[in-house]
Design brief:
The complex is a heterodimer of chains A (212) and B (309). Chain A has 212 residues and is an alpha+beta fold. Chain A has 6 helices and 9 strands. In chain A, 37% of the residues lie in helices and 31% in strands. Classes of the chains: A alpha+beta (212), B alpha+beta (309). At the A-B interface, strand 1, strand 8, strand 9, helix 4 and helix 6 of A face strand 8 and helix 7 of B.
Chain lengths: 212, 309
C-alpha cells in the first residue's frame, strides 16, 4: 500500500463562494486510484471538505432511481449537494429532513460541465448530520480563519514573486502558483467574503445583546 | 579561537570516541590543506573527515554531522537527526530479527519512543527500568511513527537516578468528521492479556472464542489542517454518548443486530466540534478528556484581522 492510501485526506474549510469557483481539478500522480483534488482559488488543494450551513431546499431530481439535491446556504453563497443510491445514508437525510435546518456535511468536491460549457462544482456527501446554530457559528469562524490563512500565504508568495532578488527565502506555494495560472479572480474577493460572513455573525450577536 | 581550530574541534569531537587522535593533529591536517594547498575550508573538512573515517574503519553514516544535540523525546519530529537522550527503558520487547540486539520503549518526562539497538553495534545491554544517557542516537521514521536507533557510535552511560516518564499528550480541537468500522458495540477475546477485537466471532490469535462485549469509538477529528484518529474507550464512549454498555447490549438484543449501536452513536457525534486531550499511541490519540465545543464562537478578533489585510 502506498503512503497516500494510508493518509486520510483532510477536510478543508471553505466558504460556498470560493468552493463554487474551484472548477479546476487534478491528480498528483498518474495512478488510476490517485486521489482527485479541486484547486481552491486561495491556493490549496481539497479532496474533502467539511461544510455547515442551512439546508433550504431538497428535491428528488432522479429519473429511474432516487437522486436527491440539497441546497445548503452559508453567508457567502449556496453549496449544491447531490446524493443518490451510492450515498444511501446521506440521501436518506436529505429525504427525511424538513428544511430549513442547519446541517454539517463531510463530502468530496465534484465538478461537471454544463451544456453551455461552464463548470459547476458540487458536493458528494459522505455524511450529513443535522446540527445546532452554535456548530454553524463555530464553522463560520473556523472557515474564516482557514481562508484568511490561505490568503495570507498566497499574498506572501505573490510578494516574493514581485521581488525576485529576495527569492532565495521565498516560501514555495505550489497551489498558489497553480491557482494564479488557472483562475482569474483575485484572492482579495475571498477576503471580502470572509468579512461579510463574520459581520453577519457579529450583527446577530449585537442584536441579541441589545436591550429590548 | 581561530576558525581552523573551531573546525578541528568539531572533527575531533566526532572521532574522539573511536580513535586516539589529538585536536592538534586534526588542526595540522586542516592547516596544511587550507594554507598550503589553498583548499576551501569545507573541502578540507571533508578530506580530513574522510581520512579519519578510513583510519577508524567507519562509514560516514556512523559519525554525526557536527555533533549530536541533547533532545527530549517530544522533540523528535524528523528522521535522521543525531541526538542525545536521557531516558528510562520502560519495556524491552522480543527482537524479531537476528540483526537486532534489543528493541523496546524509552521514556523521558516528555513522552515515549521506540528504540532499536543493532546486534552488529556491539553495545552494552540495557536493563528494563534502567535510566541511561544515550549519546549519538539517530532518529528514524516509519509510517509517521518515530523511533531512535542505537548504532556503533552511540555511547551508553547508566545513570544512578530516577526519571519520571510522561505521556505524549496531545490536545486537538476540531470537527468529528467520521466514525470508522470497529466502533460501537464490539466483542473482545476473553483470553488473559489478549483483548483483541473479534472479527466474525474469531480472534486472530485464539480462533473461535466466546467474546466479551465492549464499547468503543474510532473516530476522525479534523481541524481543516490535520486529520487525527481518536479512540474512545468504554468510559469515554459512555461519557460522550450517554449510552452505557448495558443499554447498548439491550439495544442490540432488541434489534437482533449490534450495528444499530454504531449507527445510533454516529448520528449523535458526527458533525460536532470537540476538544480532545489524551496520550498518543502511534497515529491514535486516546480520548481522556473530551469537551463538546458548543459555546459561542468569537468572530471579533478575526474580523479586525481580515479588515486590516
Amino acid at each position: 500500500m502506498s503512503q497516500s492510501e494510508l493518509t486520510r485526506e483532510v477536510a478543508r474549510r471553505v466558504f460556498a463562494s470560493e468552493f463554487n469557483d474551484s472548477t479546476y481539478t487534478f491528480k498528483e500522480s498518474d495512478d488510476e486510484r490517485a486521489p482527485n483534488y479541486a484547486l481552491l482559488p486561495t491556493g490549496d488543494r481539497a479532496n474533502r471538505v467539511f461544510i455547515v450551513g442551512t439546508l433550504t431546499e431538497t428535491e428528488d431530481v432522479g429519473e429511474d432511481s432516487e437522486y436527491w439535491r440539497g441546497r445548503v446556504v452559508d453567508p457567502t453563497g449556496t453549496f449544491f449537494v447531490y446524493a443518490g443510491q451510492y450515498q444511501p445514508e446521506a440521501a436518506a437525510v436529505l429525504r427525511d429532513t424538513e428544511p430549513p435546518a442547519y446541517v454539517a456535511i463531510v463530502g468530496k468536491p465534484r465538478t461537471y460541465e454544463t451544456e453551455d460549457g461552464s463548470v459547476n462544482v458540487s458536493v458528494r456527501p459522505e455524511s450529513i448530520a443535522v446540527v445546532d446554530d452554535a456548530t454553524r457559528d463555530r464553522w463560520v469562524v473556523e472557515t474564516a480563519e482557514r481562508t484568511i490563512d490561505r490568503i495570507e500565504a498566497f499574498e506572501e508568495w505573490e510578494a516574493e514573486q514581485e521581488a525576485p532578488e529576495s527569492a532565495s527565502t521565498a516560501p514555495t506555494n505550489e497551489y498558489a502558483q497553480m491557482a494564479r495560472k488557472r483562475y482569474d479572480s483575485p484572492v482579495i474577493n475571498y477576503r471580502n467574503d470572509v468579512i461579510q460572513a463574520l459581520e453577519q455573525l457579529e450583527d446577530v450577536e449585537s442584536d441579541a445583546e441589545a436591550p429590548a | 579561537m581561530s576558525d581552523v581550530r573551531q573546525h578541528a574541534d568539531d572533527i575531533h569531537d566526532q572521532f574522539s570516541d573511536h580513535i586516539d587522535v589529538s585536536v592538534e593533529d586534526v588542526e595540522e591536517r586542516l592547516t596544511t590543506l587550507v594554507d598550503e594547498y589553498k583548499v576551501p575550508m569545507d573541502e578540507a573538512r571533508r578530506s580530513v573527515t574522510n581520512h579519519y573515517l578510513e583510519e577508524a574503519d567507519l562509514e560516514r553514516e556512523d559519525i554525526s554531522r557536527g555533533g549530536s544535540e541533547a533532545a527530549n523525546v517530544e522533540d523528535v519530529d524528523e528522521p535522521e537527526q543525531w541526538i542525545d537522550l536521557t531516558a528510562k527503558v520502560i519495556e524491552l520487547w522480543d527482537p524479531r530479527s537476528d540483526s537486532v540486539a534489543q528493541v523496546g520503549l524509552l521514556g523521558d518526562p516528555t513522552g515515549t519512543i521506540k528504540f532499536t539497538k543493532w546486534a552488529k553495534s556491539d553495545l552494552p545491554t540495557l536493563e528494563e527500568g534502567g535510566v541511561y544517557e544515550l549519546r549519538n542516537v539517530v532518529t528514524d521514521e516509519y509510517q509517521g511513527r518515530y523511533s531512535v536507533k542505537l548504532n556503533s557510535t552511540t555511547v551508553i552511560e547508566e545513570l544512578d537516578e530516577e526519571l519520571e516518564v510522561g505521556d505524549d499528550t496531545s490536545e486537538i480541537e476540531g470537527a468529528l468528521v467520521d466514525m470508522q468500522s470497529g466502533s460501537g458495540l464490539i466483542k473482545r477475546c476473553p483470553k488473559e492479556d489478549c483483548t483483541r477485537v473479534l472479527q466474525n466471532g474469531r480472534c486472530n490469535e485464539h480462533g473461535d472464542v466466546e467474546g466479551e462485549f465492549d464499547l468503543r469509538i474510532k473516530a476522525v477529528v479534523d481541524d481543516g489542517i490535520d486529520a487525527h484518529e481518536v479512540i474512545f474507550d468504554k468510559e469515554a464512549t459512555e461519557d460522550l454518548t450517554g449510552l452505557s454498555l448495558e443499554e447498548a447490549k439491550e439495544m442490540a438484543m432488541d434489534a437482533l443486530d449490534t450495528t444499530i449501536v454504531a449507527d445510533e452513536i454516529m448520528d449523535d457525534i458526527v458533525g460536532t466540534y470537540y476538544r480532545i486531550e489524551g496520550p498518543t499511541f502511534g497515529r491514535y490519540v486516546l480520548a481522556d478528556d473530551v469537551e463538546e465545543l458548543d459555546g459561542p464562537a468569537d468572530a471579533e478578533q478575526l474580523l479586525i484581522k481580515a479588515r486590516s489585510m
